[in-house]
């Protein structure tokens, strides 16, 4: 959930000005989602949406073949949905480093 000052000036620190895009990038890389808050009155609805998402999620896991090579490995998740299923979205990390430890 990102709550940022919409009236930042060019004199504001770069971290503050880049906050929304950095949060969006971090959420995308880690499989999360960003919920921008444009109006503080929207907080209850956004919190309810986050809570609903947490109660309606699945966790998938796997073990990769013995490839602890220290390289970055891409991950792609495809959803095979039966006919007449409402649209679903998969939020997931787009890859991982196979550490040698």
List keywords for this structure.
101 residues; alpha+beta; two-stranded parallel ribbon; two-stranded antiparallel ribbon; 3 helices; 29% helix; 10% strand; flat
How does the SSE layout of this entry go?
Layout: E1 2-3, H1 14-17, H2 19-30, E2 36-37, H3 43-55, E3 72-74, E4 95-97
Parallel strand pairs: 1-2
Antiparallel strand pairs: 3-4
Structure description:
The chain is α+β, with helices and mostly antiparallel strands and 101 residues long. It has one domain. The chain contains three helices and four strands, in the order E-H-H-E-H-E-E. The protein has helices spanning 14-17, 19-30, 43-55, and strands at residues 2-3, 36-37, 72-74, 95-97. It is flat. The protein starts with a strand and ends with a strand.
Summarize the structure.
The strands form two sheets. The protein has a two-stranded parallel ribbon with strand order 1-2. It has 101 residues and is of the alpha+beta class.
Radius of gyration: 18 Å
In whole angstroms, the N-to-C terminal distance is 34 Å
Q: Count of helices?
A: 3
Going across the biggest sheet, name each strand in turn.
Answer: 1-2
Order of helices and strands: EHHEHEE
What is the typical, i.e. mean, pLDDT? 85
- Count the domains: 1
The general outline is flat
Write down how many β-strands occur, each being a DSSP E stretch of 2 or more residues: 4
| Fraction in beta strands | 5-15%
Structural class computed from helices and strand pairing: alpha+beta
Helix content: 25-40%
For the largest beta-sheet, the strand count, sense and barrel status come to: 2 strands, parallel
List segments where confidence is low: pLDDT < 50 over at least 5 consecutive residues: none
């Amino acid at each position: 959930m990102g709550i940022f000052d919409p009236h930042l000036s060019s004199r504001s620190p770069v971290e503050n000005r880049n906050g929304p895009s950095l949060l969006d990038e971090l959420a995308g890389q880690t499989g999360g989602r960003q919920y921008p808050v444009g109006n503080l009155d929207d907080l209850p609805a956004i919190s309810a949406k986050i809570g609903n998402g947490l109660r309606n999620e699945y966790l998938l896991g796997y073990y990769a073949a013995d490839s602890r090579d220290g390289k970055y490995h891409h991950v792609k998740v495809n959803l095979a949905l039966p006919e007449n299923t409402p649209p679903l979205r998969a939020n997931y990390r787009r890859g991982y480093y196979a550490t040698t430890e």
